[in-house]
Amino acid sequence: MADKNCTVLTLNNGRTMPSVGLGTYAPKQDDDAVIAAVKLAVRAGYRHIDCAAIYRNERAVGHAIKQLIVEDVVKREDLFVTSKLWNTCHRPDIVEVNLRKSLEDLGLEYVDLYLIHWPMAFKEGGDMIPKDANGKVLYSDVDYVDTWKALEDCVDLGLTMSIGCSNFNSKQLQRILDIARMKPVNNQAEVNVYNSNKKLIDFCKANGIVVTASSPLGSPGNIREGYVTLLKDPVLLDIAARYKKSPAQVALRFLIQQGIGVLPKSVTASRIRENFDLFDFSLSDSDKQQLVSLNKNVRAYLDEFAKDHPHYPFHEEF
What pLDDT is recorded for position 28? Predict the structure, then answer.
């Protein structure tokens, strides 16, 4: 599954997932930039492509995958493609329909992993973030536990090989584990040097759920007031200089050595290549300890507009 230069993570259903994936969330880029990024990434060795319906570019990603297969750069079975079910599509009777829409856009017969993007359900139909006349987000009363059962049915249909969650806290994961016919194989969460998310990671490891870091570099493009760019942290810069690596490479390697998958996002050729070049060095225990000490529990993605949703995940510590 993975390029020979990339490690793999074994999921609890026996399948494997490359530890490094290309995040395709690129809100400021057009389709041509996304196509070019995916093609360059696969040629550089990436075999894991992380997508989502809300990114609104799955058709572009699919176009790139088709070209790579036609050009015999890669075979479909060599790729690990993830997609995610958006918040307006939690109602069990429309889960399959929405997965099939992602498959149509991607030009694929199946995805390797399908995640519930957030535990919060929004009003079905219409806009992806539906709002009332006052700008208040409209919620649905669908419980993600019922959504999960519909995802299990999608595995039975062969539309996805594995299923998991994204942005779920440990209590929400436990509710799914309590009823699951198929355990979540993955929880995608915001994890980086400044947000270690240790309790959630420990919970996932104890329950055989692989964690993938969705913001492994601290979301430098999503800086809000009081949020310091971790890639400029003096400790990280010092460690990077000693290894003759970039701060981003050290930040990514730090997570990989913990058995956490990483999904760096970029459409810049040099950074895409750099973010994959992680397997010719290892951080020492003392360097890892220094990086652990940098944790600030700083979260870039809070989705505070939905803070009053009954399934908002960040009221809990983990």
Answer: 85
Q: Rounded mean pLDDT of the chain?
A: 94
Q: What token pair was written down for 285?
A: 């225990």
Q: What's 137's DSSP letter?
A: B
The one catalytic residue in 25, 46, 55, 312 is: 55
Query: Which SS3 state, helix, strand or coil, does residue 168 take?
Result: coil
Helical H runs in 45-195? 58-70, 92-106, 144-156, 170-179
* Residue, of 28 and 25, whose pLDDT is higher: 25
Which are the contacts of 225, defined by CB distance < 8 A and separation ≥ 6?
none
Q: CB of 119 within 8 A of CB of 167? A: yes
Is there a contact between 184 and 152 (Cβ–Cβ < 8 Å)? Answer: no
Amino acid at 58: E
Q: How far apart are CA 88 and CA 128, in angstroms?
A: 6
Nearest partner of 48 among 199, 214, 233, 183, judged by Cα: 214
Please tell me the predicted confidence (pLDDT) of residue 227.
57
Residue pair 81/106 in contact (Cβ under 8 Å)? The answer is yes
The answer, yes or no, to whether residue 2 has pLDDT greater than 70, is no
Rounded Cα distance between 169 and 288, Å, is 25
> Residue 15 has which token pair?
């399948």
Q: Where are the beta strands (DSSP E) in 228-310?
A: 261-262
Cα dist from 9 to 17, 21, 48, 284, whole Å: 5, 12, 12, 21
Give yes or no: 110 in active site: no
